[in-house]
């Protein structure tokens, strides 16, 4: 399998605090990679640094053969490296449909029709303002926007955070469907059950460094690692 | 009856005020940037029109051309200068744009001299309309109609088109707009150009009414601030409402208590901010 | 289990020491509601915090924990409900007045005076109890001996003495977090609220913070928000779980850990270990 | 680096300036005006640099002081010291009113509000011409003769101004070094925290306004006596703008910087305006240069130079004085 | 040759009145050059930029006293700066002579050191409104637009007296502030009052704005328009002949005045600067000339000596014979009523108007309120 995204020695600061201290990871074509870690470990910071929303101080980022380190976020996005951010980044004063329309890019395998088929709820609410959506609906909208934007790699930051279980199921299914379409995904997720269901490989970040790395099967059986890095007690 | 005329006349003044202020408002909404050079762009719009008309171009060529020239100049200024200071505190926005306004004003004097000039209303619009006791210049009528069409058009662009949606998205969060693949830097330049271009257009339209003189920019800035603050910064309809409100107040006060007109307008502005933090229609 | 017992032991000990306190309840809310526009960030939360207990509040992001703190300290106005401090209704008291009544807080997002020295930060925090004195432009900053002394004590307690003269903005993240807690301590409050005191701290700092919070209960009532379950489960007397602005459940750490609802809403499936 | 930020050193610098101005300037008016605007700018700095309030309304207080001098000295023969006291009191009162209304808003809205008030007071002064002389202003404002000392001569008046200047400058230095001053700095740095720590932030801001208004009015009164007129232009928006520009050019958050800003601006304007009628163009360029390259003003420039020369202790980050203003910027975004 | 004479020209060189300052500066230079030649001694001018602000004006004058030893000042475009500078001249034993508008300069605020060349409001109205009333016996309804301050009120009150005397109906007045730029509201009022004559009593760019907007409202075809206090040539240039045609203007000076003094001036200005003199230039020229002549004659530049020389002097000026009235230092000279020409009737590019009438009207010094101490 060829490598879609390769990150080496990524270092990022917020002011003077050194948040990412040499992160390295890779995402291969067609797979879902999960990034785990406690609150504040630096997961979101990693995703933002990769896509250019934050400017890393150091590090190499290769995306589909291009060195994109230091690129501004919009150029990375034009290359198809799309982040669905933690806060979902919905434009609250734009309607759902406007949110979708401004995301539409030529050549995307998804059309507005596809989106409305995937997320019928969005079609029902397409005249509503983004700010009026529930958390789950906003999450759908945010993913939908990324799909319309012709993604070549999708980075999802806690996509099921704070969502009701049914919606979690729905989103998990959609994520798997996106994978079926051949889009690799880098996902940050606290919910181990979700990870286990979708991830092919797992990285764990601790204090800004990759502390652990394993494929799904190994990780599932590594009670100690989960206890140590995520504070998950195996009863 | 006079009051009816005054109200109508006030709407006419107000439409120009709206045009003058809406650019300032749009710029503020998108860039969180207070532009003290807005009046200077108005000044340039008027002088470009004046210059072109003096050179023998028809007003109908001069007016749009002047607005486009101002737009281009403003966008260039944004790229060269202003984008470096967005992140600085307001103090420096004020400093830089006040400086810019001074430069433009003095350049105007150097190029066109300290005396003002006159721009005749375009052929065919230099008469008056008479309705009973009421007289109204055709050109002013044209300005009302033109601005109204422009207001609707602008509203449609901002609210109804994809480009408008992108601009509005950018004013909510430029970070998230960038995540969708938009070059927010370029959007900023374009919007600044648009906003300043609207001021230039207002200047171009005002030239046949007001004539041109090097200090008309200062006066325009004052009015634009009042309108934007009353209407709510960043609000499109707010600018329209407040522009008309200020225009009508001014016109009606001309009959009621003319010497207090300005006092009332500034008092009103202070009251509005104290009572309604965001202006009449400003959003949080 | 053993940790939990220890916590119970300790809390029993401390409440024993202060048994004759007039009000067993230090801080109480009833049906507290906070609206941001039309959105209710906190909805009808009734909370009762025992004097000198350690009361933690947990819940998913956006549950309204910080907002609840804002309401308790007066930073936001509740739209309904009431807050009582030692049986005094403070629902409509301004935030700075509440400091005088004995509530102080630390912030989730570090909020210091970055260009002032550590000592000056703490002195100001301490002076905040007698703010009107500070209105006198002729008084020198060394005038308030008491405030200076408090600042010194707090620095000692948080091992910040070595950096007393450094600007707060130049401290390391961990030190800033400690100073953040110190700002609350310097006001010598009876009730101290800490919003995620350990967020952004290194492992050893976290351990120290845990001990600090534990020791605070000797003479303060402590309410804190934390995502670090190690601390929450170890030192809390009571845990309140919030979700979507509402109080989900409340109980001892042990009860909370075993509550199925909490596992689903906050602790998640992962804690059960039933990985599919 | 330590000494150059020491208040006593600043007072020494101010005193040195006061003594040296007569040696270097031939013009007693210019020298007096530098000190007078030095006061007004220091007062503006108290708001901008120490409290984080960008006030576009300083001209109101300047004008008020100037009118107090004009009205009391020409119509009521009130002794000058009493007149100065009254101008201080009235300046403080009006500043409390303006401050009380303005601080309800933050960021750009605060700026706009002070701007609106400045226009409002201008038109007030303009409309009540019976009191203010309208466009003509109040003429024949005399310079003082106090206890046998005749200050009507320009240079002797300079020393009159100088004594008041140094006294007020010392008081203001003391103020900035006091608990009060530090609390203002705390408010500028982090208003939310200052409030959370227990300070009634609004009361402090209003107090800062009162002091600022009092000192600015004093400057206005001194100015009216200097030029013998209380003109309408003193209360104009333009006066507010100039005071603000001088403040930023000098450097905010440091009182001696204010004297530096006032002096530099006045001297520069004096020189430029005689060599080129279009000197405002150069001023415009200068403002842009300051914003782009000298964000901490002239004082910041001096600090940087000194620290380069001594190169001992490590440099304070450049962002130091910008930060509080950033916060104000954020206030506008809310 | 004896020592050099320097005349200060305190005028707004920057700011909104910069245009006036620019021409005033030229007028001073010309007068100084001529005097140098005539008296064989060095005569110079020094421009002092007042920025149009009284405070700056006084500061510049004080400086010029101290640093340049200048005691003679010819300038002051705005009333406020002129009043303030006149006071300063008195304090310092200098002489100040001005063309500014406010009556107080030689009225209630007159002083021994302050002279004025321009005709006060009384004469401006007497020499414009009265002749026009006589010329248009059927025009019985007059409407006025007045700036709200002493100058405007001065003009208005004189006009009202004439209205009363002549049985004219004053059908309305609109006051406006000195910063007003938009006059359509006032014009709407005026139209509703159906006047025969619209009397515009503001000055400078405000009168241009008012007139321009009045013309665009078609008022020229419905009534006679009189701008009582026009600034002269530069105003015609800014407005253009189309607007000015058929409109009456009151003026302190017009380059078409047929006097030897004026013809000489027009000639030398054309030669020296390739310009036609306007009010600012001509005014500054005559002010400077008066000062220098008096100083040479007095053999001193001390204020009291020069002032004594000026007081009571009669000379052949730009407007014909002019006299400096001793009691209030007011120059007694003609004021002009002009009428705008059609473009096709203009002999050259500056021939905007014809002189309809001219004459001298002045209040007595007592009536003007001048008590010189
Ligand atoms: N804007 C910011 N300024 C300063 N520090 C920040 C900022 N954003 C995040 N941090 C700090 O960076 C660290 C990493 O944050 P990050 O958001 O990447 O964590 P995370 O792993 O995504 O956590 P979570 O699970 O809570 O989302 C934290 O310590 C946080 O406090
Ligand atoms: N100023 C505000 N205006 C509008 N909504 C707000 C505001 N502040 C917070 N909210 C919303 O209120 C809800 C509760 O926020 P709060 O900060 O109290 O959560 P929290 O429980 O502290 O979360 P976390 O664990 O992430 O700190 C969130 O949905 C948040 O988006
Ligand atoms: C036309 C001008 C001579 C009038 C003068 N500027 C004044 O202020 O009154
Ligand atoms: Mg995160
Ligand atoms: Mg929180």
UniProtKB/TrEMBL annotation, chain A:
GO terms for biological process: L-amino acid transport. Residues 5-232 form the ABC transporter domain. One of its GO terms (molecular function) is ATP hydrolysis activity. The keyword Glycoprotein does not apply. The keyword ATP-binding applies. SMART domains: AAA (SM00382). Gene3D superfamilies: P-loop containing nucleotide triphosphate hydrolases. InterPro entries: AAA+_ATPase, ABC_transporter-like_ATP-bd, ABC_transporter-like_CS, BCAA_Transport_ATP-bd_LivF, P-loop_NTPase. Keywords: Amino-acid transport, ATP-binding, Nucleotide-binding, Transport. Belongs to the ABC transporter superfamily. This is Branched-chain amino acid transport system ATP-binding protein. It comes from Pseudochelatococcus contaminans.
Automatic annotation (TrEMBL), chain B:
This is Branched-chain amino acid transport system permease protein. Belongs to the binding-protein-dependent transport system permease family. LivHM subfamily. It is a multi-pass membrane protein. Keywords: Amino-acid transport, Cell membrane, Membrane, Transmembrane, Transmembrane helix, Transport. One of its GO terms (biological process) is amino acid transport. GO terms for cellular component: plasma membrane. GO terms for molecular function: transmembrane transporter activity. It comes from Pseudochelatococcus contaminans.
TrEMBL record, chain C:
Pfam families: ABC_tran, BCA_ABC_TP_C. Residues 27-269 form the ABC transporter domain. Signal peptide: none annotated. The keyword Ribonucleoprotein does not apply. InterPro entries: AAA+_ATPase (IPR003593), ABC_AA/LPS_Transport (IPR051120), ABC_transporter-like_ATP-bd (IPR003439), ABC_transporter-like_CS (IPR017871), BCA_ABC_TP_C (IPR032823), P-loop_NTPase (IPR027417). One of its GO terms (molecular function) is ATP hydrolysis activity. Residues 1-23 are annotated as: Disordered. SMART domains: AAA. GO terms for cellular component: plasma membrane. Keywords: ATP-binding, Nucleotide-binding, Transport. Belongs to the ABC transporter superfamily. This is Branched-chain amino acid transport system ATP-binding protein. It comes from Pseudochelatococcus contaminans.
TrEMBL record, chain D:
Its main location: membrane. Keywords: Cell membrane, Membrane, Transmembrane, Transmembrane helix. One of its GO terms (cellular component) is plasma membrane. It is a multi-pass membrane protein. It is found in: Cell membrane. CDD domains: TM_PBP1_LivM_like. The chain crosses the membrane at residues 7-25, 31-53, 60-78, 84-101, 108-128, 155-173, 206-230, 242-268, 280-302. GO terms for molecular function: branched-chain amino acid transmembrane transporter activity. Coiled coil: none annotated. This is Branched-chain amino acid transport system permease protein. It comes from Pseudochelatococcus contaminans.
